Amino acid sequence: MSIHNVKRSQTHLAWDKSIPPVIKIQSGENVSFSCLDASNGQITKDSTVATLSSLVFSQLDQVSGPVYVEGASPGDTLQVDVLSIETADWGWTGLIPGFGLLSDEFPEPALKIWKLNKAGGYAWFDEERGIKVPLNPFAGEMGVAPGKKGAFSTIPPYSTGGNLDTRQLTVGSTLFLPIEAEGALFSIGDGHAAQGDGGIFSPAMEGTAIETPMEVTVRLTVRKDRPYTKTPHFHTFRPNSNNEEHYCTTGIDSDIREATRSAVRNMINFLEAEFQMDRVAAYMLCSVAGDLRMHEVVDMPNYVIGMMLPKSLLRGPLGQNA
Fold first, then answer.
1. What's the Cα-to-Cα distance from 208 to each of 11, 57, 256, 313, 319, rounded to whole Å?
2. CA of 58: how far to CAs of 34, 50, 91, 161, in Å?
3. Per-residue pLDDT tens digits for 222-247
4. How far apart are CA 314 and CA 322, in angstroms?
């Protein structure tokens, strides 16, 4: 089976069916992509918080491609099998002023550079406290070109994919995307070493996960038998489904965003009060390792949103557990 390669320099900054493909492949062939992190290489393992003030926002969230798949036509479905992902040995998480779920409560920039222990499958969040975050690498961006004319930002998700930021789309998973343009024009990027469900920090600017460069290989197959695929579908296994104990805070409000903000804020307050954790560090921990859940959505007018953290991550300054 042929294996094709997309180089790190072969990127674009918008979903647009008029962008020429960098390669053409047959249905069922594998493609390996070399991807910079979501900062487009502007943040490195040697960066400091001062780097954030010089970011060129127009260069963020690039994707690698596009790849033209022979035989792909509007109305078909592109099956994307994620075969392998290799991250760098480092990553970053950032608080960007003006972005994120609690941006009004965290106005100062912050940057954490992580060392990724790929052999051990974790990254230390706080070694003194014994807090380490399991690695679960995935591509935050996977999508095909929209059928409409024009350039569409890579920042939001669309019915054709894009910035899905779905941590279940890791190795072994399969994504199905509705094809709207000839050749599908598939692209990928935004490597994450770990992320909680919800992407708390910055749905518009990344930094919400452990961002990292990655080498990723996928198999792209045209499916003619899935006319019902109108939005991204996927099948996967559920991470952290081994009955691990969690601690959950909730937010309750008639506005689902405010309920979500409250749930996260309450977890930060809990970590600060019970474990003497710095609020910025607590916010970062929620984003890279916590999961947001919709617990109750039927008894109007209020929603119940939960913020869940594994109890194995709840440790005080001397390492005492929750």
1. 21, 15, 20, 18, 26
2. 21, 18, 21, 20
3. 999 999 999 999 998 765 556 688 89
4. 6
